[in-house]
Amino acid sequence: MELSTILIRTGACLDARIWAKTQPDLGTAWRECKRSDWMIWLLAWTTLSQDDSRLRLMACDFAEAALIYVPVGEDRPRQAIEVARRFAAGDATREELAAARDAAWDAAWDAARAAARDAAGATACWDAARAAAGAAAGAAAGAAARDATWAAAGAAAGAAAGAAAWAAARDAARDAAWTAWDATRATRAAAWAAQSDIIRRYFPECPEIKPELLHKAV
């Protein structure tokens, strides 16, 4: 089945369908794609969409990349990722996973409260910390691993974007808003690209699309 047909039947967004037209086939598109959100979305339509262990470990890698935005001394997000990795390996219970997730969310809320007290530039920095903690919580979510992966990827990219906005607000005395927007957009794109490489480490080739899902797709 042609790539364009697959994307239409699975309800891919317009931007993804337009980009896919520049690719000769699904395998090439998978190897060249720099949008992790598109790749994670496509994984839901593949035969490996239920590979919980691999997907959760991938979510942990996403979240771990965002730990650089967590304040020094705040260990709850890192600990949540460690528990999620142990859970993926069968070495942690669902109760331990839930406790780690809750602790990471507490860290995210603490960052949000700190943001509410600070000035705009510092607020963006705390927003990055909150998103990073949210990425860890996503990796430790008790839901299906594919949902945890999606949550961790989005939050990790958001953490990078928030940090870029903070840096732009701090450094740009003039035209700060436009500078922050450009920095945020570029940094989010870089985060997506880095996550795409992580995805390919776990799934070097695009998994097979489930024929039954394509038949059911509207």
Structure, described:
The chain is mainly α and 218 residues long. The protein has two domains: 1-48 and 205-218, no CATH class; 52-202, no CATH class. Helix content is 73%, strand content 0%. Helix 5 packs antiparallel against helix 6 and helix 9 runs antiparallel to helix 10 (176-202). It is globular, with a radius of gyration of 18 Å.
Summarize, please:
The chain is 73% helix and 0% strand.
For the structure shown, list the relevant keywords.
11 helices; globular
Mean of residue pLDDT? 76
| Spatial extent as radius of gyration | 18 Å
Q: Could you tell me the strand content as a percent range?
A: under 5%
Unreliable residue runs: 162-183
Distance between the termini: 16 Å
Number of strands: 0
Share of residues in helices:
over 70%
Major pleated sheet: none
Order of helices and strands: HHHHHHHHHHH
Number of helices: 11
Shape: globular
Which structural class fits the helix and strand makeup? mainly alpha
Count of the separate structural domains: 2
